[in-house]
Amino acid sequence: MSANRWLTTGNYFTSYQDEQRIFSTRLDKLIFIGFIVCLFAWPLLIKLSNRNMLVLDTILIAIVAVLGLNLLTGFAGLISIGHAAFVGVGAYTVASIIRLIGDDHVLVTHAWPLVIIVAGLVGAVVGAFVGLPALRLRHLYLLMATLSFQIIFQWIINFSTFFNQGQTISVGRVFWFTGKIVRKQHYVFWYYVILVAIVLLGLGVRNLLRTRYGRSLVAVRDNDRAADAMGMHPGLTKVYAFGLAGFLAGIAGALHAYLYRGVGFESFTLHHSIVYLAMAIVGGMGTLSGSFWGPAAIQFLELRVEDLAEKAGHYFPSNMNLSTALRPLTFGLVIVLFLMFEPRGIANWWRIVRSYVKLWPFRY
Amino acid sequence: MSYFFQLVVSGIVVGSIYALSGLGFVLIYKSSRVLNVAHGQIIASGCFITYSLTVWAGIPIYISFLMSMVITFFLAMSVERIFLRRLIGEPIISVIMVTIGLMSIIDGIIYLTPFGSENYSFPEFFPQTPISVGDVSISWTQLVGVIITAVLISGFSWFFKKSTVGISMRAVSDDQLASMSIGVSVPRVFGLAWATAGLTAAAAGGILGNITGLNFDVLQSFGIIVFPVVILGGLDSILGAVVAGVLMGLIQQFAAGYLDGNWGLNGTAEVLPYILLLVILLFKPHGLFGIHEIERV
Questions:
Q1: Is A261 within a domain?
Q2: A26, A177, B135, B149: which could join B16 in a potential S-S bond, CB 3.0 to 4.6 Å?
Q3: What is the ipTM of this complex?
């Protein structure tokens, strides 16, 4: 496509190949590459405090997890309220490797990319297993399957001594070619690692969505009988969606374990599953860019809520923990309000703005 | 042997409350095909309303129990009116997610009240000495709870079988278009289904609060067990909810009585229902009494 995408009023693709391209023009590709370079370059110029860097890293990890949830809920149409448990599976894979071979074993400190990938694969297997009822059932029942997985996961972690009964299992510092990553470099180093993971996984998911397997996810979501008639296997497609979501969640979990240098039960509760769901909804279900907007928006909101709770805490009795009350309240409200008034999420605002600019000075 | 019968008795006590709360869940699902994830939170709020009316406002328990049922009736109805009415016709997946959001909102509201952080317990209304038959004993509170539950469940069965409103609710669950054409107001039935579900939830909460005390975490986990119960019974069967409720109570009591402490197991009563749920989903997804829809994928 040579025409300027910003000025044309419709789609002028002349072949399917054109339409399926990830970057429709060379300019798009350049802008994208420039953007990625900026993301890699800015920490060299600006030094953020560890606290802010941690917030940023948390957002990025949430993006990886929400990419998975968005595949599952947005593209395949299967609600999951056990996504935090899938993330937990990744984190606890790292933890169990550490419990088995010790936290300063060379495998954990030097071959950590391998550990992260193993955690992703374990997540994929567990995800596919939980999704097995999909071979027979539709989405309503799968909600129950994910919920029960969440509860079973919490029980296993809380009652088995192998997982330290939910107490923190610490993860050692890792090595890079330059040597041990010390406290000062820790958050910046992991920023880069997570960024690389996001770029790879994001492009991977984007590519997946234009292949046969990705499109069959959307087809099964929209009408599974029609998809069946066209030769797809709806049940297997759903199990496969669960596997993919589990893979992404597992990677997010492993990154979480390394970033926080510890795995504790309290990061993977039902409440966190709902927060992930809120991120996916706010960002925009079934849109790739939504998985980036949602975590950022929710994390920002969470910081504001904590500030507010701290300030308002003076006016309330001291035995009341205001932030435990305000957090579920805000996330619940955000979920409900977005579903009622903007079901397509923040990603839709971008579309609105773009079409406004495109059509200006006309309304439509 | 008396240990066995003691477990049976307490299983039936817990199970009858499961039955009552499962009833409300099935009602909503039957009429509007919505899985109400927030049902446990409605049960908990029913319980807290009963407590605050009884203890803080000093109203006799008999009246406050009925009052909390009426209050929750209208609360649930307004929830339906405000949040779910405008989502009629939207994909069912977003309606379910709205109930997930509702669950979070009600959680937050309860954490704002004193009930979120502290434990309370009802004063004793009945004689303290338990009734004993041989070695098996049951406390008065439990006995009265079971009797109230039985009365309520049979009352509701009568209501659905015989009364006009109940019949119209069953009609809507059967075929919305057909019932609309014979003059049943479908939105009104949806509202009523939510309201009745709220009413049964408040009753279940009130009884439960008397038996176990008021701890939000306990009530919450109790609320989530409604899911395995209704799946075991079949999502759209009221009889199924009742039978499965009692069964689930028995299973939990037996697990706690015989499994815990052996083979290094602990807290099995909390997790067994969910393992059972996964197994049922795999092998008998329509439960014991559910309608076998041809919905294979």
A1: yes
A2: B149
A3: 0.84
Is residue A351 in a domain? no
Give the tens place of pLDDT for each residue, A181-228: 777 788 888 888 999 999 999 999 989 988 888 889 889 888 888 888
Given A141, A144, A329, which is nearest B108 (Cβ)? A329
Angular region, B129: left φ>0, alpha ψ -120 to 50, beta rest: beta
Interval A329-354: pLDDT, tens: 888 898 888 888 888 888 888 888 88
Which residues constitute the domain of residue A103?
Answer: 49-277
Quote the CA–CA distance of B122 and B49 in Å, as a whole number.
12
CATH architecture, domain defined by B2-121+137-283: Orthogonal Bundle (1.10)
Domain boundaries, chain B: 2-121+137-283
Handedness of CA A241, A270, B201, B222 (dihedral sign): positive
Reading the block at residue B25, the tokens are 């869940």
Q: Which residue has the tokens 């397509």?
A: A344
Q: What distances in angstroms separate CA A136 from CA A130, A131, A139, A142, A229, one per listed residue?
A: 13, 10, 10, 10, 17
Is the four-CA dihedral B156, B161, B167, B171 of positive or negative sign? positive
* Chain A residues 249-288 with a CB less than 8 Å from chain B: 274, 277-278, 281
Q: Residue B111 is nearest to which of A234, A324, A333, comparing CB atoms?
A: A324
Distance from CA of A328 to the nearest CA of B (A): 5
Closest CA in chain A for residue B271 = A152
